[in-house]
Amino acid sequence: MSASDAGRAGLPAPVAAAAELAAGCLAWRVADRPIRRLQDLIPSHPMKRKHLMTHNRRPLLALALVLPMALAACSGGPAGPAGPAAGDAYQPQADTLQVYSAQHIEVTEAVAAAFTKETGIPTQVRDGQDSSMGHMIVEEGDSSPADVFLTENSPAMTLVEREGLLAPVDGSTLDQVREGLAPSSGLWAPIAARSTVLVYNKDLISEEDLPSSMMDLADPKWAGKWGAAPGGADFQAIAAGMLAERGEAETRAWLQALADNAEVYQNNIATMKAVNAGEVPVGIMYHYYWYRDQAGDRQGSANTQLHYFGGEDPGAFVSLSAGGVLASSDMPEQAQKFLEYVTGPKGQQALVDSGSMEYAVGTGVESAPALPPLDKLEAPAVDVSTLNSDKVIALMTDVGIL
Ligand SMILES: [Fe+2]
């Protein structure tokens, strides 16, 4: 994607420039090794001086929003296409439901295909990443082609919600979702859930030596012994949960400890593999990457086990993938029908059958049997409407992670 393509896609100039950087990443592909700071990924690119070493926060924030896209584009892993940067080929088709999706693309495509088969309503999926796609919808405003937005984590949806761009979700749709999960606003619906976990190397650390809280990792005794992928929307949702629950001062201090003491990886899978390989004893990630690996060849996780913090710890945060209907949709009935399908028995079963190992959130649909029950995870009670990943990105920028 060139900067001019990004401009055509309606991105602000710094974001467009960063998107160009993402597209250019093939020239500096890096391995799944720890990186101290995300800008270490771009050792000689002029963007480093121009947009990272500046006191002006706006370009920094803009780059931070697009960096996950750059990382996904460069990881060569299963993160999928490079978010809205892939939109240079995007041409919305007429009379086709436009699904903007930051959820894992395989999951969205599986569910959308099942929906079209069931209803005859054609769908077109535009693939992206949480933060950059949420900001793209805000930029596009009422002229957005999007009818439906699906996120990987709910903060990207609240970003759009705060701008008043969502239509109320049909009550019959919200009624299908397990109690206590939907936001009080009724402006979006949960479509899947994922749990924070601590992955640990069984040869390097015993269960009794694990931290009792994720907050304990800020202790200097854990310096150099933990890993995380703070550039990704998954981690940023976890930090947004911490921010909502523990407040800014505590979250800032914890993120500072991460900046100073943790090994930074490109994504959840790289974190898991590093723990498996013994680079660090423990790492923070979401549960489903581990269960997928375990269900496969176990090459990335054979030496590891998962620890669930429980006890309403910030490390037990459960993130919701979200679905919303754009108020500007020119196919509102079909869009509501899509969301009803996604949260209903068939859509939720399609989620489970996709092998994503995320939790189903619809009533009456069982998640994969390998998973501990969602209602036994002792997740902290966080008001999902207050989650703010932009604030997290700003804090992470301040402490030098991004
Ligand atoms: Fe993920």
UniProtKB/TrEMBL annotation:
GO biological process: iron ion transport; transmembrane transport
Keywords: Ion transport, Iron, Iron transport, Signal, Transport
InterPro entries xref list: SBP_1_CS
Keyword Signal: yes
Entry keyword annotation includes Nucleotide-binding: no
Gene3D superfamilies with a match to the protein in the record: Periplasmic binding protein-like II (3.40.190.10)
GO-annotated cellular components: outer membrane-bounded periplasmic space
Cross-referenced Pfam families: SBP_bac_6
Family to which this protein belongs: Belongs to the bacterial solute-binding protein 1 family.
UniProt name for this protein: Iron ABC transporter substrate-binding protein
Highest classification ranks of the organism: Bacteria, Bacillati, Actinomycetota, Actinomycetes, Micrococcales
